[in-house]
Design goal:
heterotrimer; B: mainly alpha; two-stranded antiparallel sheet; 12 helices; C: mainly alpha; 5 helices
Amino acid sequence: MSLLADIVTVVAVCAGALFFLAGTVGLLRLPDSLSRLHALTKADNLGLGLIVLGLLPQAGSVLAALKLVAVWGLVQLSGVTVAQVVAAALRRRDGPRP
Amino acid sequence: MSLIDILDIALALVVLAVAGWTIAARDSFAAAVGYVAYGLMLSLVWLRLSAPDVALTEAAIGSGVTGVLLMTAAVRLRRTSQSGADASLRTATRIAAALLCLVVTGALAAVILAPVDIVASLAPAAAGHLASTGLGNPVTAVLMAYRAFDTMLEKGVLIMAVIAVWSLADDRAWGGRAGPLSRGPADGALGLLTRLLPPIGIVVGIHIAWAGADQPGGAFQGGALLAAMALLVVMTGLVKAPAVASRWLRIVIVAGPATFILAGSLGFAIAAGFLAWPAGWAKPLILVVEAFMVLSIAATLPLLVIGPPQRPPAGRDTP
Amino acid sequence: MSEFLAVIAGFVLLTVVVGLWRILRGPDDVDRTLATQLLGTGGIAVLLLVAAGTGAGGAEDLALGLALLAAFASVAFVTGLDASDGDGPGAP
């Protein structure tokens, strides 16, 4: 059982780290702000989400696990809003894209 | 050297690099963003140093509230002055500033590098008397029991800061509200966030303040989170900034220090003197004082960010 | 397991730090704000990984606090722009 939990942790945490890598590469390499925003939201949602998922089997108590999920939920809420708001601000500046 | 040591060294180098870059950045907004990044990294460092209380404070105050203060200041400054302020500085002024910096840095370095007798740590004594305070968190015991006088004066400093900010107000605007921080009440995604987040933030903030008695947390950290939530609803225009003439606002600001002084004076009646509390009384008194301090901190910090009143109070004509 | 989590924490820290390059270069204030957003999320991830690896106490509450503040800087940036009579984000 513990082995199974450890496998879940390793797989999910590694996958989450990859999404962070993807987010950073996108932030650095993509040509314009809207595309970078697109790359960033992947790291926010999936990167942290998978890492939280991977850490759940290692959590000491149910309360600690619930706090982990709450952290992910809050970041999710913030990430979504920031993406919307920043995109709207960009659109006001540049006008609708062709 | 284990992997975690390598991680610690990397973290320390990153903090130094971000700090250096923040100082060197020419654009004030970029520097403010760098400062937010620096605060985040520093709070990780505090956690690695097994000081979660300080990490929480650094995250909420250093990175959160101060970061927003600096960012709004940078945006406002950019609006008012297009020319760089540094162009107007004379060479003599620059040299004088550089010399002053060198003297201060040299003095600090001399103090730190000077050989000192190692003072015996007070930690065992602090931990030994923990039971008499009724608290489980030694940090809170130091702040609220052993060094309560210092903490009380710190809260006085916060009130001074609010008075200093308010004193920048125009005569006509005195008694009124701070200028609008946004175009109007936020709608759409931002409106949803500002309606969803504060209730959760209030629960977490009170939890952190309450848990501070026995675990990492405390009045300042909890109050700072509440302040961040208050700032959020004011920034997005959902709630108007309070008028500085309003009585309840002033009562909330002084409630914490006033309760502190009252509770301290109670020491004359029930124990040896000011802020002296007998064992059975310490914890309930500390809890009452902390509750009011949370309130005052939550009100004071946003007032520092939203700035002096700019709009005349309602019912008075604008000349 | 704790060694593994430390390695991953170091890796995420590295990617986030490389992302700081965006704060440095800009070119736009929007890009700088995006970089802080990534840094905030990455910082929370590093914090959770390190805490799980070393068993440091108080990390969950710290992470909750950071998560509440995650959108704070970006919201301040955008509302600050809106208040400044409609000059677009990152006007020089």
